[in-house]
Amino acid sequence: MHALQYELTLPAGYDMGIIRDRVARRGHLLDDWDGLGLKAYLVRERGLRGSPVNQYAPFYLWNTVDGMNAFLWGGGFQGVTDDFGRPSARQWTGLAYQEGNGSHARFAVRRRQPVPDDGPLADAVQEAVDEAGRSAARDGALLAAAAVDTSRWELVHFSLWERWEQDAPKADGDVFEVLHLSAPGRDRLPRGRQW
After folding, report:
1. What are phi and psi of 106, to 5 degrees?
2. What are residue 40's DSSP bridge partners?
3. What is the rounded distance in angstroms from the CA atom of residue 126 to the CA atom of residue 123?
4. CA-CA distance, 192 to 21, in Å (whole number)?
5. What digits encode the pLDDT tens for the residues 122-148?
6. Across the strands, what pairs with 141?
7. Which of 32, 51, 78, 137 could form a cystine bridge with 44, CB 3.0-4.6 A?
8. What is the Cα–Cα distance from 15 to 37, expressed in whole angstroms?
9. pLDDT (tens digit per residue) in 21-31
10. Does residue 158 contact residue 144 with C-beta atoms inside 8 Å?
C-alpha cells in the first residue's frame, strides 16, 4: 500500500463551491482506476472544524505503484496541474490498514507527525500500526491507515468517519469534509500490518 496526498491551499475568500462543483463533475473519473485502493476527495474551509485555511487536499491509498504512476504520469494528475499548477505530491509507504464499522465517509482526519528520534524505529512504527487499529475500532470509523515517509521520517495517520462530533473528536488531526470517495480497490487493500 502507498499513500499519496497533495494540498491546494486557496485564498481566504475563495468560493469553495468551485471545488465542490469540480468534484461533482469529475469525481467519478477514478471510480474504476486500476491499482487505486481509494481516493477521498477532501476539502476544509476556513473557520469550520478548526481549519485556518480553505483547502482542496485529495488523499489516496494505492494498491499498486503501477496504478499510482499511471495516475501521475498517464493523465489523471494532469487535470489538477492544468487547473491549479503543479502541487507537491507527498508519498508515504504503507504501515497498516484497517476497516471499521462505518458505512459512509463524510469526514476524514489526517495527522502528520515526526517519527521520534529516541528509541527503536520498530517501536515507533508499531505504535502507528496500533493507533490505526484503535481508530478503526471506534464507533463510526469507516477505515484507518498509517504510513511513513522515510526521507522526512514522518508518519501520517489517516481515517474516514461517518460523522464528526465537535464535542468528542474521535481522532486527532486536521478535519476534512469528504466530497466523494472513489474506492475501486478498497476491498484489495492489505489488512493489518504491512510487513
Report:
1. -110, -30
2. 59, 181
3. 5
4. 36
5. 999 999 999 999 999 999 999 999 999
6. 161
7. 51
8. 30
9. 999 999 999 99
10. yes
Regarding pTM above 0.90, the answer is yes
**Mean pLDDT along residues 150-169:** 84
Residue 2 has pLDDT above 60, yes or no: yes
Tell me if 45 sits within 8 A of 51, measured CB to CB. Answer: yes
CATH number for 2-186 (one of 3.90.1640.10, 3.50.50.60, 3.30.70.100, 3.40.190.10): it is 3.30.70.100
Domain boundaries, the chain: 2-186
Cell numbers describing residue 21: 462543483
